[in-house]
Specification:
Helix content of chain B: over 70%
Chains: A alpha/beta, B mainly alpha, C mainly alpha, D alpha+beta
Strand content of chain B: under 5%
CATH superfamily of the largest domain in chain B: MetI-like
Number of helices of chain B: 14
Shape of chain D: globular
Oligomer: heterotetramer
Distance between the termini of chain B: 5 Å
Bound molecules: adenosine-5'-triphosphate, magnesium ion, nickel (II) ion
Radius of gyration of chain D: 23 Å
C-alpha cells in the first residue's frame, strides 16, 4: 500500500477548474517529483493534501494517507495529522518563519502542539533536528531569531520544523528556488539524506528539471491542471511519451548559435573599480564601517563581444552593473566606454549613458504599469538630443516591436496584458530602440519559464546577427551563460577570480571557486535518444 | 540597540529645540497684552507699565526666550502671569487629572478595540465582521463632543448615575476619582476604540496572509491557535504606533471634552491661558505636550524592539 | 463595485448635492431671522424646524454643508499641495540632509497638539473659516508627506525607476512621471480620509467658536448654539450632529471602498 | 445643612481684588474675605464697613473715618489705622497695579490720627468718594500678608480662605473670630463652570447648590418649572450697548449714529439673545437707579426712518463696517441679531468674534473697530463719556463740563438733575446704541435663602446665605 494515494483528484476555485482528475502516489522512502510550467497547479496538490486550500476551493476525488481518506476529515483531526504525520516545507524561506519568535520556539512548537512529549524532552528533540539539518545548537543557538540567519539556514529551520516529529510524508514545495546554487546543493543533499534515513515519503515540487532528474525516483509532469506524463525517472527521461514533456526538457537544455565575434576592439574598459557601501556605525563614536561590494575589478569588453558574468547571489554582480551604467559613483577606479568616462566629476556623463541600455530580471517590475507600450519603449529617447516625433516615432516603435517578434499593434496595450516572455521582449525592445553600443542583461531570463527562456535566448542570438550586439550577460544560471556568451567572468565576494573563453572556463575551470560553482549546479543528463 | 536609542535621542532633542522656537514665535505674535487683560478697561497707563515690569514683560523677546528655555532646562517653567503661581505647580496639578483621564480612556479603548479587532479579523467577511466594522465606522464618524453631550443628557441628567462633570479629586479614594472621570473617558475612548479596532483588524489580516501563518497551520495549529500565537504579536507593531499617537492625542486633544465636563485638566488650562494671554503658561504647556508626544513616540519605538527582534539587533 | 463604495458614494454625493443646490435654492433664506417663530420642532413648513433665532434649519444645514466641504476640501488641498512634493523630494533624496530636514520638520509639526495649535492660530489671527482652514491644513501636510514618502521609497527600489534613470531622466521628472501616478491611488484614499477628518476638525473648531463666523452657517457652530437647548429643543443638536455623522461616515465608507476598488492586488484576485 | 456649593462661570486668576480687574475675584472675596471702609448692600446702597462712622469737612475735602474696634485679620493681627493708610497708599503709589487707580486719584494724603482714626484729604471735593471706597479695589489689606495675597488672601471678613484646587474650586471656612454676626454657613465652595451646557447639567444633576450668574437664559424656564429650584432674576450694573467708534467715518456723523439707533429693535435682541431677560435702556444709565430717566423713545425701532437718515447723511446704499463681538452670549447672540437688523437698512456689519484679550488690545486700546457690543458693568459709570480718549471716542465739552459740576456737587437733588441732563445729552447725541440693562440670572436650590437678587457689584455675599430647613 502506498503512503500517499491520490485518485482522480479534481479541484475548482470559485468554479474555475484548477486540477483535473489527478492521479499520483508516493511510497515510503520514495521521492516523487512534480514538475511542469508555472501555474499548472503543482502547489495546489500540496495544499490539497494538507487540506489548507484557499477559500472557495471545492475538491472531488480521493486523497488517502495510509489508506485513510483525508478529504472531508473534521478540522480537528486534520490538525492532529498536520505536522505529525505530514510535514510541509514552503517555497519562501524568507517569509515562512515568524519574525518575532526564536527558531527554537518555532521548532519546538511543532512538537508541543501535538503534545508528543514534555517540554524538556521536546527541547532535546528540537536540538537534535536542528543539528540534523546542519544547525548544531552550539554554533546556532536556539535563541536566534530568523533574521539572524541566512536564507539557506532559514530554509533548514523550516525543514527542521517539518521533520521534528518524523512525519511519514514530507511535502516540499519549491524548497530551493530562492537559493543560490551552492546552498541549493546542500539542501537537496539534506532532503535526500532524510528520506533514506527515516524512510519518509517525499513529494517534491519544483520546476527545475535538472533537480528533478538528479533526485527523483519518480516524475510527474503537469500542465494546465492535468498530469500529462508520469513514470520512473530513468525510464521517463529516456522514453518521453508526451510532446510537452519533450518540449520542456529540450527547452531546459536549449542551445543557441552565436555569430562569430569581430576583431577585438575595446568598447568598455573597467579598470580597478571599487564600490563601497557605508555600513551604520557599530558604536556611537566608531568610524562607519564599509562593505566592499565590488573589489578591484578590471576587465575589457570588446565591440561585438558577448561577455558573461557569473557568481553566487550577493557577490556584487548587480552592483557592478549599476556602476557601469553610471547610476552610482565608484570609490576608486575608472570605467570608460569608447574612451569616455561614465562619470565626470560627480555627475554621470549623459553622452556616454546614451550608448548603454539595460534589461532587468523582473519583466513586470521594470515597467511602469500605468504607461502604454509605445511610451514604455520610447523612454530612452529622452537621452537623445532630438527625439523623433510623430510618424517617425511610430515607425521606430513598430520596427522595434517587429524585431523582437511582437506586432506593431501591441504599442497601445498596457504591460499587464502581456505574458512574461512577451514582457521580456518589450524590455529588449526598449533597450534596443536607441541602438546602444552596449546592453547589460542583469539576470534577464532568471524569472522566466524554461520554454519562454529558450525563446528569448533564440531571439538574442538572432538579434546578435542582425544588429551586431555587444552585451554583458549576468546570471547565476551557468547553463544559460554557457550558451549565450563568448567569454565569461567569474565573480566571488566582489572580486573577479577567473576569466576566459566561455567553453574553456566551463570545461577546464582553474579557480577552485569556479569548480565549486560548476559542481554544485545540477545538470541535465543527455536526453531524448531512443524516443519510442 | 543602545546606539539606535542614542541616535533617536539626539534627533529628539533637536526636534524639541526647533519646537521651542516655533512655539515661542507663534505665541509671542499673538495680539493681546496680559497686563491689560488683567487690569481691565479702567487701568491707567502707569499701572499697566508697573504690572508689565512686575511680570518681566519689559525685556526683549530674545532675552525672554532664553530665560524661558533656560528655566525649563532646570525644571523652572516660570510664574503664571495671571495666577501668580509657578507654572510647574499648575501643570503638575492639572496632570493629576489629565494623565489619569488619558490612561483611563486609553485602557477603555484598548479593552474594547482588541477583542473587537481580533473577532472581526477571525471572522473576515462574515456577518460578525460586517457588524463590528459598521459599528467602528459609526464610532469614527461621531464627533466626540456631541457624544459627550448625549452622555451627559442620558447618564447625568436623566439617569443621574454620574455627575454631570467636575472632578472629585483623589483624596476620597481612587474610586471616587475614577467615577467622576468615567463619562469623559468613555466620550474620549469611543472614537479611539473604533480606530484602534480597525487598525487591529487590518494588521491581523495582513499577518494572516503571511507565509509563516501557513507554516504554522502546516505544523498542526488550528486557525485560532495560529491567530493567537503567531498573529497577535506581529499585529502589535502597527497597533502600538496608533496607541502611541492616541495617547498623545488624549493628553492634549481632550480640550473640548474637558470643557464639556468642566474638568480641571491640562487642555482647559491652555484654553483659559490662551484667552487670558497668560503666554508663559501656554508656551510651557504646549512645550510639555510636544515633549510628551515626542517622548511617547520614542518609547513606542523602543517598544517595537521589545515586540520585534529584528529591530533589536539593528545596531 | 462593493457595498462600501456604493453606500459611501451615495451618502457623500447626497451631502455634496445639498451643498451645490444651496447655491441656487434653499427653502428659506438661511440668514433671515424670525425671532417670534423660534425653536419650532420639525414641521411641514420648516422640515428640520427652526433655531433659536427662528431661522430655517433645513436651509442652514444645506448651506452649512457648503462650509464644511469648502473648509475640509481646501485644508486637504493645502496638505496635498505642500505635503506631496515634500514626500516626493524626501523619497527621491533618501538619506540626504534634505530628506532628514523635511521629515524631521514634519515630525515636529506632527508632534504639536493639533487642536491647541488650531486654537492658538485662531487666537493669533482671529477666528474665521480661512484660519480654520490653515490650522487644519497645516496638520495635513505631514500626513501626506509621510504617506507619499513611504510609498515612493518602495517605488524607487523598483526596476522601472532604474530603467527611467538609465534613460537619463532626472529626479524631478521621474517623480512626476513615474512615482506620482503610482502613489495617486493611495493619496486619493488618504485624501478622502483626511477630508472626513477635516470635517470633524472644522466641527470641533466651530464648536469652540473658532470656525466660520456668523452669519455663515456651520454645523459645528449650530451644535454649539444648540447645546444649551438640547433638553427642550433636541432637534437643534440632533440634526447637525446627524449631518456630520452622515458626511463623515459617507466619506470613510467611500475611502474604504475606493481602497478596495483601486488596490490592484485585490482587483486582480477578483478578476 | 451648613455648607454650600456655589458655581460661577469664571475662575478668578488670583485672589487679590486690589490688583486685577477680574470680577471673579470680587465674587469670591468681596465682603467674604476682604472688607473695605464702606460696603455695598444687595440693594446697591453704601453702608459703613470697617469704618464705623465718618465726618466730612465743610468743604468736602477731608474725611475722618472712625474704625471699628476689635477687628482682627485672619492671621491674628489687629486691623488698625496703619493698615488703612497702608492699603490706600498702596493703591495710589507710583508702582501701584490697582486696576481702578482712578478711584483714588483724588486722594491728597492719608494720615493716622490714632489707632482707630484715619483722616483722608482729597484734592477736590468728590461726591462719590464713599461710594468709591465701597469697591472691591478699595478693601483693607494687611501689610504682613501682602507678599502672598494672590494665593493666600488674609482679610478681616467673616470667612477665611481654606483651599484652592486650580481649575476647579475654591473653599472658604467660617471665621470664628469675626467682629460681626456669625454667618449661618460653615463652609462655602466656589466651583468654576464656564461652559453653559455644563452649567445646566451641573445644576440639573444637583452637583451645585447655587449658580451665581447663570450663563444660559434659555434654560431658566426649565428651572422655574422644576420645584427643586428657584430662579432669581435681578438687575446688574451692566448697561449693554452697541459701542460706536465716534471718530471713525461714517460714525463721526451724528445722522449715521441716529440711523443706527433707529435700525435696532431692542426687544428682538432681548427676546432673541436673552430670551426675554433684560430691561430696555435708551441711555447709559441703570434703570433701577432713582436718577434714571426712560429715553428709549428717543431711539425707537424705525427702519424706514433709519434709511431716510442714512440717505440724508449721504449713504443711501448703506456702508460696510465691522462688528467686534467679545465672548459672552449677550454679545455673540446679540451681535448676530444686530447684524441682521443692520443689514435690513443696508449696513453690512462684518462679525468678528474676539476674545477679551484681543478685544482689549484692538478695540479698547487700539480703537480699531466700527461697532462692538459690551456690557459696562462698573456701577455709575456715565463718567466715561467725559473721557475723549475712551474707546468709543466721544468728545463733548458740554458733557465734560457737566461731569465737572457733578463731581463737585454734593446736594442729592442737584446731582439727580445733573445726572438726568447727562443721560439726555448722550442719548440725543446718539453716542452709542443703547440696548438693555443686563439681567442678573441666579439659579439656586429651593432651600437657599439670602442670595443677592441684584448685583450692584460683583459679589456673592455669603454672610446672609442660609438653608431653609
Ligand atoms: N487563492 C486562489 N484563488 C484562485 N485561484 C488560485 C488561487 N491560488 C492559485 N490559484 C490558481 O490556481 C492555479 C494553480 O496554481 P498553483 O499555485 O498550484 O501553480 P504552480 O503550479 O504551483 O505554479 P508555480 O510554479 O508558479 O508555483 C493557477 O492558475 C492560479 O492562478
Ligand atoms: N544599497 C546597498 N547598501 C549596502 N549594501 C548593499 C547595497 N546594495 C547591495 N549591497 C550589498 O552588496 C553586495 C552585492 O550586492 P549585489 O546586488 O551586487 O549582488 P548580486 O551579485 O547582484 O546578487 P544577486 O544574484 O542576488 O542579485 C551584497 O552583499 C549586498 O548585500
Ligand atoms: Mg507553486
Ligand atoms: Mg543582482
Ligand atoms: Ni520504453
Amino acid at each position: 500500500m502506498n503512503l500517499l494515494q491520490i485518485k482522480n483528484l479534481s479541484l475548482a476555485i470559485h468554479d474555475t477548474p484548477i486540477l483535473k482528475r489527478i492521479n499520483l502516489s508516493v511510497a515510503a522512502g520514495q521521492i516523487v517529483a512534480v514538475t511542469g510550467e508555472s501555474g499548472s497547479g503543482k502547489s495546489m496538490i500540496a495544499l490539497a493534501v494538507m487540506q489548507l486550500l484557499p477559500n472557495g476551493a471545492e475538491v472531488d476525488g480521493e486523497l488517502r494517507l495510509d489508506g485513510q481518506n483525508l478529504l472531508n476529515r473534521p478540522e480537528a483531526e486534520m490538525c492532529a495529522l498536520r505536522g505529525a504525520a505530514i510535514g510541509m516545507v514552503f517555497q519562501e524561506p524568507m517569509t515562512a518563519l515568524n519574525p518575532v519568535k526564536t527558531i527554537g520556539d518555532q521548532v519546538m512548537e511543532t512538537i508541543l502542539i501535538h503534545k508528543a512529549m514534555p517540554p524538556a524532552k521536546a527541547r532535546v528533540r528540537a536540538e537534535e533536528v536542528l543539528a540534523r539539518v546542519g544547525l548544531p545548537t552550539d554554533r546556532y543557538p536556539m535563541t536566534r531569531y530568523p533574521h539572524e540567519l541566512s536564507g539557506g539556514q532559514r530554509q533548514r529551520v523550516v525543514i527542521a520544523m517539518a521533520i521534528a516529529l518524523r512525519p511519514r510524508l514530507l511535502i516540499a514545495d519549491e524548497p530551493t528556488t530562492a537559493l543560490d546554487v551552492t546552498t541549493q546543493a546542500q539542501i537537496l543533499d539534506l532532503l535526500k539524506g532524510l528520506v533514506s534515513e527515516y524512510g519518509m515519503g517525499l513529494l517534491m515540487i519544483t520546476h527545475d528539471l535538472a533537480v528533478v532528474a538528479d533526485m527523483a525516483d519518480e516524475i510527474v509532469v503537469m500542465r494546465h491542471g492535468e498530469v500529462v506524463e508520469t513514470g520512473v525517472t530513468d525510464h521517463l527521461l529516456r522514453h518521453m511519451q508526451h510532446a510537452y514533456t519533450r518540449m520542456l526538457f529540450e527547452a531546459s537544455g536549449h542551445q543557441v548559435n552565436l555569430p562569430v565575434p569581430p576583431e577585438p576592439r575595446p568598447l568598455l574598459e573597467v579598470d580597478n573599480v571599487v564600490r563601497d557601501y557605508r555600513l551604520p556605525r557599530k558604536r556611537l563614536f566608531d568610524a562607519p564601517g564599509h562593505h566592499r561590494a565590488v573589489n578591484q575589478v578590471s576587465f575589457t569588453l570588446n565591440r561585438g563581444e558577448r561577455l558573461g558574468l557569473v557568481g553566487e547571489s550577493g557577490c556584487g554582480k548587480s552592483t557592478l552593473t549599476r556602476a557601469i551604467l553610471g547610476l552610482e559613483e565608484v570609490q576608486n577606479g575608472r570605467i570608460s566606454l569608447d574612451g569616455q568616462p561614465v562619470f565626470t566629476g560627480h555627475k554621470p556623463n549623459l553622452a556616454v549613458r546614451r550608448k548603454m541600455q539595460v534589461v532587468f530580471q523582473d519583466p513586470y517590475g521594470s515597467f511602469n504599469p500605468r504607461h502604454r507600450v509605445a511610451r514604455l519603449i520610447t523612454e530612452p529617447f529622452h537621452l537623445l538630443d532630438t527625439s523623433p516625433t510623430g510618424s517617425e516615432r511610430q515607425d521606430r516603435v513598430a520596427e522595434m516591436l517587429t524585431a523582437v517578434g511582437l506586432s506593431p499593434d501591441d504599442a497601445s496595450r498596457f504591460i499587464h496584458e502581456f505574458s512574461g516572455g512577451q514582457r521580456q521582449r518589450i524590455a529588449i525592445a526598449r533597450a534596443l530602440i536607441i541602438r546602444p553600443e552596449l546592453i547589460l542583461f542583469d539576470e534577464a531570463v532568471s524569472a522566466l519559464d524554461v520554454s519562454v527562456r529558450a525563446q528569448i535566448l533564440d531571439l538574442l542570438a538572432e538579434l546578435c546577427s542582425i544588429y551586431d550586439l555587444t552585451y554583458l550577460f549576468i546570471s547565476h544560471d551557468l547553463s544559460v551563460v554557457r550558451t549565450i556568451t563568448d567569454r565569461v567572468l567569474v565573480m566571488q565576494d566582489g572580486q573577479i577570480v577567473e576569466q576566459g573563453e566561455t567553453e574553456q572556463v566551463f570545461s577546464r575551470p582553474q579557480h577552485p571557486y569556479t569548480r565549486t560553482l560548476i559542481d554544485a549546479a545540477p545538470s541535465l543528463p543527455e536526453i531524448g535518444q531512443g524516443a519510442a | 540597540m543602545l546606539r539606535y536609542a542614542l541616535k533617536r535621542l539626539l534627533s529628539l532633542t533637536l526636534s524639541l529645540a526647533v519646537a521651542s522656537v516655533v512655539i515661542f514665535a507663534v505665541i509671542e505674535v499673538a495680539p493681546g497684552d496680559p497686563a491689560s487683560f488683567m487690569l481691565g478697561v479702567n487701568a491707567q497707563a502707569d499701572t499697566l507699565a508697573a504690572l508689565r515690569a512686575e511680570l518681566g514683560l519689559d525685556v526683549s523677546k530674545v532675552e525672554r526666550y532664553f530665560n524661558w528655555v533656560g528655566g525649563m532646562l532646570v525644571g523652572d517653567f516660570g510664574t503664571s502671569y495671571t495666577y501668580r503661581t509657578p507654572v510647574s505647580q499648575m501643570i503638575a496639578d492639572r496632570l493629576w487629572v489629565s494623565l489619569p483621564l488619558a490612561l483611563y480612556a486609553l485602557t477603555l479603548s484598548t479593552l474594547i478595540a482588541f477583542p473587537a479587532g481580533i473577532y472581526a479579523a477571525a471572522r473576515r467577511g462574515k456577518p460578525g465582521d460586517v457588524a463590528v466594522m459598521g459599528a467602528t465606522q459609526l464610532g469614527i464618524a461621531v464627533p466626540n463632543f456631541w457624544f459627550a453631550m448625549m452622555l451627559v443628557l442620558v447618564f447625568a441628567i436623566n439617569l443621574r448615575w454620574f455627575n454631570a462633570g467636575g472632578f472629585a479629586g483623589w483624596e476620597d479614594g481612587v474610586w471616587t476619582g475614577l467615577h467622576s472621570l468615567t463619562l469623559p473617558a468613555i466620550a474620549l475612548a469611543l472614537p479611539q476604540a473604533a480606530i484602534l479596532a480597525r487598525v487591529m483588524r487590518s494588521a491581523l489580516l495582513d499577518i494572516l496572509a503571511e507565509d509563516f501563518m501557513r507554516t504554522a497551520r502546516a505544523k498542526g495549529l488550528s486557525r485560532r491557535q495560529a491567530l493567537w500565537r503567531h498573529g497577535v504579536r506581529n499585529a502589535l507593531i502597527p497597533v502600538l504606533t496608533i496607541i502611541g499617537l492616541q495617547f498623545s492625542f488624549l493628553l492634549a486633544g481632550s480640550i473640548i471634552i474637558e470643557q464639556v465636563f468642566y474638568l480641571p485638566g491640562l487642555g482647559r488650562l491652555v484654553f483659559q491661558a490662551i484667552s487670558a494671554r497668560d503666554l508663559i503658561v501656554v508656551e510651557s504647556v504646549v512645550m510639555l505636550l510636544v515633549f510628551a508626544v515626542i517622548m511617547v513616540n520614542f518609547l513606542v519605538d523602543l517598544a517595537y524592539a521589545a515586540v520585534d527582534p529584528r529591530l533589536r539587533s539593528r545596531t | 463595485m462593493n457595498r462600501n463604495l456604493i453606500l459611501g458614494a451615495a451618502l457623500s454625493s447626497l451631502v455634496l448635492l445639498a451643498a451645490l443646490v444651496s447655491f441656487v435654492w434653499t427653502p428659506f433664506n438661511h440668514a433671515a431671522l424670525d425671532i417670534p417663530a423660534k425653536l419650532q420642532p420639525p414641521n411641514a413648513q420648516h422640515w428640520f424646524g427652526t433655531d433659536h433665532f427662528g431661522r430655517d434649519m433645513f436651509s442652514m444645514i444645506m448651506v452649512g454643508a457648503r462650509t464644511s466641504i469648502a473648509v475640509a476640501l481646501v485644508a486637504v488641498g493645502i496638505g496635498m499641495v505642500l505635503g506631496i512634493p515634500m514626500g516626493l523630494t524626501a523619497a527621491a533624496r533618501k538619506g540626504s540632509w534634505l530628506d532628514e530636514f523635511i521629515m524631521r520638520g514634519n515630525d515636529v509639526v506632527f508632534a504639536f497638539p493639533s487642536l491647541v495649535i488650531a486654537i492658538l492660530i485662531t487666537a493669533v489671527f482671529g477666528a474665521g473659516a480661512i484660519n480654520a482652514i490653515i490650522a487644519i491644513g497645516i496638520f495635513n501636510i505631514p500626513v501626506f508627506a509621510r504617506i507619499t514618502r513611504g510609498a515612493a521609497l518602495s517605488l524607487w527600489e523598483r526596476e522601472f525607476i532604474l530603467a527611467a534613470r538609465v534613460s537619463g531622466k532626472g529626479i524631478a521628472r521621474i517623480s512626476a512621471e513615474h512615482i506620482l501616478p503610482n502613489v495617486a491611488n493611495l493619496l486619493i484614499v488618504q485624501g478622502t480620509i483626511q477630508f472626513s477628518l477635516g470635517i470633524l476638525a472644522e466641527a470641533g473648531l466651530s464648536y469652540v467658536g473658532l470656525g466660520a463666523q456668523p452669519p455663515t452657517p456651520s454645523w459645528g457652530r449650530m451644535l454649539a448654539d444648540a447645546q444649551t437647548m438640547v433638553s427642550f429643543a433636541p432637534h437643534l443638536a440632533l440634526i447637525p450632529g446627524v449631518a456630520i455623522i452622515v458626511t463623515v461616515l459617507g466619506l470613510n465608507l467611500l475611502g474604504d471602498g475606493l481602497r478596495d476598488w483601486l488596490d490592484p492586488r485585490i482587483r486582480v484576485a477578483r478578476a | 445643612k451648613s455648607d454650600i456649593i456655589i458655581a460661577m462661570q469664571l475662575e478668578p486668576p488670583h485672589l487679590d481684588p486690589t490688583s486685577a480687574a477680574a470680577q471673579a475675584i470680587d465674587s469670591v472675596v468681596y465682603t467674604n474675605i476682604f472688607e473695605g471702609l464702606t460696603r455695598f448692600m444687595g440693594d446697591g446702597s453704601v453702608v459703613p464697613g470697617l469704618a464705623e462712622s465718618w465726618e466730612i469737612s465743610e468743604d468736602g475735602t477731608v474725611y475722618t473715618f472712625k474704625l471699628r474696634d476689635g477687628v482682627i485679620f485672619h492671621d491674628g493681627t489687629t486691623m488698625d489705622a496703619e493698615d488703612v493708610k497702608f492699603s490706600l497708599d498702596r493703591a495710589t503709589a507710583e508702582d501701584s497695579t490697582n486696576a481702578q487707580k482712578a478711584l483714588f486719584a483724588g486722594i491728597e494724603s492719608v494720615e493716622v490720627v490714632d489707632p482707630l482714626t484715619v483722616q483722608v484729604t482729597l484734592k477736590d471735593p468728590n461726591g462719590n468718594f464713599l461710594f468709591n471706597l465701597a469697591w472691591g479695589d478699595a478693601v483693607i489689606v494687611a501689610p504682613e500678608s501682602i507678599e502672598n495675597i494672590k494665593t493666600n488672601p488674609v482679610g478681616t471678613g467673616a470667612f477665611t480662605f481654606a483651599d484652592w484646587v486650580q481649575g476647579d474650586s475654591i473653599t472658604l471656612n467660617r471665621n470664628p473670630d469675626y467682629w460681626g454676626d456669625q454667618p449661618a454657613l460653615e463652609t462655602a465652595t466656589f466651583k468654576f463652570i464656564s461652559d453653559p451646557t455644563a452649567a445646566f447639567a451641573a445644576m440639573m444633576a444637583e452637583d451645585v447648590d447655587v449658580f451665581d450668574n447663570f450663563p444660559a437664559p434659555e434654560n431658566l424656564p426649565q428651572f422655574e418649572a422644576d420645584p427643586r429650584f428657584q430662579v432669581l432674576v435681578g438687575s446688574t450694573e451692566g448697561e449693554t450697548i452697541l459701542s460706536t467708534n465716534n471718530k471713525q467715518k461714517p460714525f463721526d456723523d451724528i445722522l449715521v449714529r441716529q440711523a443706527l439707533a433707529h435700525a435696532i429693535d431692542r426687544q428682538a435682541i432681548i427676546d432673541g439673545a436673552m430670551f426675554g431677560y433684560g430691561t430696555p435702556i435708551g441711555t447709559h444709565f441703570a434703570p433701577h437707579n432713582p436718577a434714571y430717566i426712560d429715553l428709549t423713545g428717543n431711539s425707537a425701532y424705525d427702519p424706514e426712518k433709519a434709511k431716510a437718515l442714512l440717505a440724508e447723511a449721504g449713504y443711501p446704499d448703506g456702508f460696510a463696517t465691522t462688528l467686534h463681538l467679545p465672548p459672552p452670549s449677550y454679545a455673540r447672540r446679540g451681535g448676530e441679531i444686530i447684524a441682521a437688523q443692520l443689514a435690513e437698512v443696508g449696513i453690512k456689519a462684518e462679525i468678528i468674534n474676539v476674545e477679551w484679550a484681543q478685544w482689549l488690545e484692538s478695540v479698547f486700546k487700539g480703537k480699531e473697530f466700527g461697532l462692538t457690543i459690551v456690557s459696562h458693568t462698573e456701577p455709575m459709570d456715565i463718567g466715561i463719556y467725559a473721557r475723549p480718549d475712551y474707546y468709543f471716542q466721544y468728545e463733548s465739552t458740554d458733557f465734560q463740563a457737566l461731569m465737572d459740576t457733578l463731581n463737585s456737587t454734593t446736594d442729592p437733588d442737584e446731582r439727580t438733575r445733573l445726572l438726568g441732563e447727562a443721560q439726555r445729552l448722550i442719548a440725543t447725541d446718539y453716542v452709542n446704541g443703547y440696548l438693555f440693562q443686563l439681567a442678573k440670572l441666579g439659579v439656586a436650590k429651593a432651600g437657599v435663602q439670602g442670595l443677592w437678587e441684584n448685583a450692584p457689584t460683583a459679589a456673592i455675599d455669603l454672610t446672609a446665605i442660609s438653608w431653609d430647613e
